[in-house]
Structure formats: C-alpha cells, structure tokens
Amino acid sequence: MARRLETYRRKRDFEVTPEPPPEAPAPRDEGPPGFMVHKHHARRLHYDLRLEMGGALASWAVPKGPSYDPAEKRLAVQTEDHPLAYGRFEGRIPDGEYGAGDSLIWDRGTYDTVPPGQAERQREKGHLALEMHGEKLRGRWHLVRTRRSGDGEQWLLFKAKDEVADPAFDVVRERPESVASGRRVTRGPVAARTLRARHPLPMDLLLRVWPPMLATSARPEEVSGDRVLEVKYDGFRALAGLSGGQVSLQSRNGLDLAPRFPAVAGALGRLVVGEAVVDGEIVAFDRAGVSRFQLLQGSGGRLRYVLFDLLWHEGEDLRGRPLEERQELLASLLADAPETLALAEPVAGTVAESLDRARREGLEGIVAKRRASRYQGGRGRDWLKVKVAGAQEVAVVGFTPITTGEKAIGALLVAVREGRGYRYAGKVGTGYTQAARRELFRRLAPDRVDAPAVADPPRLREARWVRPRLVAQVAFTEWTADGRLRHPSFHGLRDDKRPEDCGRER
Ligand code: MN
Questions:
Q1: What is the pLDDT along the chain (506 residues), one digit of tens a residue?
Q2: How many Å lie between the centroid of ligand 1 and the Cα of residue 75?
Q3: Would residue 182 count as lying in a domain?
Q4: Contact assessment for residue 62 and residue 48, using Cβ atoms and an 8 Å cutoff
Q5: Is the dihedral of CA 320, 277, 214, 362 positive or negative?
Q6: 100 CA distance to ligand 1 middle (Å)
Q7: For the domain that residue 397 is a member of, what is the CATH number?
Q8: Same domain, 382 and 395
Q9: CA–CA gap between residue 484 and residue 486 (Å, rounded)
Q10: Residue 218 domain flag
Q11: d(CA 449, ligand 1 centre) in Å
C-alpha cells in the first residue's frame, strides 16, 4: 500500500496543500467499491476519474470529461494512485503547488466491473468494463488502454451502448455543479505572467466598481423572496482594491483606511491574485466571536476584515454575475488567506429562526440577500438588513458640558435626519471614557451655533448647540412614542458616515 502511494506523496507538500496525506484514515462502508470524479481547474480544466480498487483510488485525468455519446471516445491519461481519503477532498490546491487550482467533487457513487469484482485484473489487462451508479454517471462505461508508457498510460473513456446512452445529453455542460456542495464556478491557478503583467492602480480598480451596494433597513415581515441570510457585522464597511501587489482600502465615503488598519492592508497584500476588488466589513470580535463596534475604537478584540463579495477578478467585472458565483469565487480567493481575512458567515434557517439566533448570540442582526442578484451600487431592496439590537447612527447636534467645570462633555444631544431637516432623538449621557468626554468637547466646542439644527429642540438650559458634523453610534433599548431613544449609550464616532445619512432605522 505504502508503495502504491509513494508517487502521490512525493509530488505534494502536506504542510502546504489541504489534500489528505497517504496515511489519512478513510473509513468505508461494506458494499461495492466507490468512485468519484473531481472537476479540477488546474492549468487546464479536466476531470479526474477515480475508482476504488486495492485500497487506493486508481486515477485517470480526462481533459474533456465523460460523454454520454458512445461515439465520443475521450482521452484519459492514467495518473498516480490517490489515497481513499481523497474522495472527500473538495477545495483549492494552493498556488505554486502540484495541481494548483480549485477542485470540485463533480460526481460520486459506487461502481462495479462486469463481471463483478474484477477491477484490478481488468486494469492490468487494459480494459475496464464498468457499471456506474453515480449521481451523473450511470449505466455501463468502458475504459480501454491504448498506449503503455510508464506513468502516462493513455486510455480511452467512453459510454457503452445501453438504455441510458444519449448523444444529446452534454453532461459536462448541463451539470457543472459539485455534488458535494452545489458549487458551480471554479478558479484556476494564478499564472506567474498574470502576476507580472501590468495592472492599473488599485484605486482605479475601485473607481470602476464604485459605488458600494447598500442594504435597505427592513422589518422581518418585509423580507420576501428567495434569499440567503448572513450575519450583519458591526464595524466599518470597506472595499479593497488589489492590483499588481498593491492595495487600496477605502471606506464608503472614500476614507483611506489602510493607515488605520495596517494589519488588514498587510493581509490583503499577501493574497495571490493579479487584480481583485473585494467588499466587506472591518470588525473587532469579542471573546464570544461577536463583532462590536466599540472594540474598534481601542486595541481590544480580534481585528478581522470579514469579506462578503468579489466585484472584480483578473480583468473581469463580476458585478453582473449572480451573487452565488461571486461568493464562490471569493471563497476560492480566500482559501489560503491569512486569518485576518475571513469569509462572512452564512446563517441557516428561516428569517425568524436566524433573528432568534441573532438575539441569543447578541448579534446586531442579519442581512438577507436576494439569490442570483447582481451587485448594484447604491441602496436597493436586493439586500435587506434586519436589526435586532437597537443600534443607531445619529447626528451630533449639541452637547451639555460636564458639571465638574472641566472642559469635557456631560452628554451628547443627538438627532436623526427627517425630510430636509433633523429631528431631536435624545440625550446620550453614558458610554464615555473620561478621555472621550474631553476629546468630544475639544472637537465640538469650535462648532457652536446659536440656533439648534433640530426643528423641535428640548428645553435644556445647559444645552450647547453645534453645527451637525459628527456622527455617533449609539445602542438603545427602543424608540419612545415621541421619537426619542430609550436608554441610549455612546459606542463611538463614525467618521465613515455623514450626519445627513443618519435616518431613523426601523
Ligand atoms: Mn487533476
């Protein structure tokens, strides 16, 4: 056995590739031997047929894949035997490694020879007569050796003339998906010439796909249609352009976030890709793995760039492609990424179930994205956000000084946008550090104005009104009947948002 898999071992570095080492355990059921076909997007896309025999997987690379037309005899080059555990491998073989590129489990099932139990003998003789019971490959097939030359034995794979033979059925084209994950698109290895080629500046790539797509705030009962649900992250929305090894990291309003989050920019720079634009949220996770906006202010929490979309890839604008394809390519791009770059977490179940989970785990809410939707800049209803925790961005329209006489604020007076003006939303008196109270005073004092920006100012003798310029994020328990925040607390300033964008969230 060890000898059979020696070639397999020699070709791979198991410290680098996620493929199973020869000694990986592979418990199997009794019954007929198994087979699988990998759709392998290596330098050339091909299909690897693997038949279980003698405790390993005998393997053939079929460049064009199998055909249901008995007249189509497909070249099949025998390759090294693979370990049985390979039957469960689906993923990306890292760039620079043997067989680099994505590999999907395109088909799987059981087979036997005709007559049964003759697999090793028939392989030796150079003619396998197969009866396949896969999800895609069914009925009788032949695998016939045409040329013997050591490692690269050539065989032909073709369909026997039986009741399931069908020249009109193009199985490779009509069934592109993985039978394990449903994934459809694959990404080949990144060629050295792609990396070396001239690429635009990363900022120019970002401008080609600008502006970002925004979610509309919705109530749970408004979420209709076929949608995929994702965790809603509480951090800074950021798009990154990667081009020729350079990185640009921008907030929604065009703020350069790279100097603020050098670890994120550094991790992006290590991705092996010629050109890409990714979309996501820079967050800090608490110990429970929940993103907390407050943690981004300091150095507490685990910093991550959680990615949920891929808008541009190797010269191709992906925005017109269905959501799922963009997500599959993104997952492939992140297969070997540093841990600072994470993939957004899908949420299983119905909207009600996932909101329950969000409440239990203390998440901000969920985002419901319409299946097969395109990426369209600006706000629309293909992406809906449903919040559970009361989190609200508010315009700072004033403050009250602290009663100790220090140059520090006691509370912020905040408002939300309504029509062309602002509506007063309450007084936020908790959630500050002493340093934050002084810093806010320092920033707000020069903005003082005589008349409040809100149409309905409260009667507060100590109120100091300011021109709305800063945006604060606050947490609160509920809206009161007169449109005020109940029990609000300060979570930080948001310099990625404008005061005029602070509408009341539902
Ligand atoms: Mn292969």
A1: 567 899 999 999 999 999 999 999 887 778 899 999 999 999 999 999 999 999 999 999 999 999 999 999 999 999 999 999 999 999 999 999 999 999 999 999 999 999 999 999 999 999 999 999 999 999 999 999 998 876 679 999 999 999 999 999 999 999 999 999 999 999 999 999 999 999 999 999 999 999 999 999 888 888 988 999 999 998 999 999 999 999 999 999 899 999 999 999 999 999 999 999 999 999 999 998 999 888 888 777 899 999 999 999 999 999 999 999 999 999 999 998 999 999 999 999 999 899 888 888 888 899 999 999 999 999 999 999 998 867 789 999 999 999 888 999 999 999 999 989 999 999 999 889 899 999 999 999 999 999 999 999 998 889 999 999 999 999 887 888 888 998 888 989 988 889 998 988 76
A2: 14
A3: no
A4: yes
A5: positive
A6: 9
A7: 2.40.50.140
A8: no
A9: 6
A10: yes
A11: 70
Q: Do both 472 and 420 map to the same domain? A: yes
Q: How far is the CA of 352 from the centre of ligand 1 (A)?
A: 43
Q: Are residues 196 and 334 located together in one domain of the fold?
A: yes
Classify residue 251: in a domain, yes or no. Answer: yes
Give the number of residues written for the chain: 506
| Residue 61 structure tokens | 């690379």
Tell me how far the alpha carbon of residue 79 lies from the centroid of ligand 1, in angstroms. 8
What is the C-alpha to C-alpha distance for residues 424 and 244, in angstroms, rounded to an integer?
49
Say if 494 falls within a structural domain: yes
- 385 CA distance to ligand 1 centroid (A)? 42
Q: Which domain covers residue 44, as residue numbers?
A: 6-174
The structural domain count of the chain equals: 3
Alpha helix ranges (H) inside 182-322: 192-196, 202-209, 262-269
Q: What is the pTM of this model?
A: 0.84
Could you give the residue numbers annotated as active site?
Answer: 232
What is the whole-number distance in angstroms between the Cα of residue 38 and the centre of ligand 1?
A: 7
Strands 341-343 and 302-313: what pairing? parallel
Q: Are residues 341 and 224 in the same domain?
A: yes
Q: Are residues 30 and 124 in the same domain?
A: yes
Which residue shows structure tokens 């099932």?
109
Same domain assignment for residues 223 and 154: no
Residue 130 shares a structural domain with residue 23: yes
Name residue 240's amino acid: A
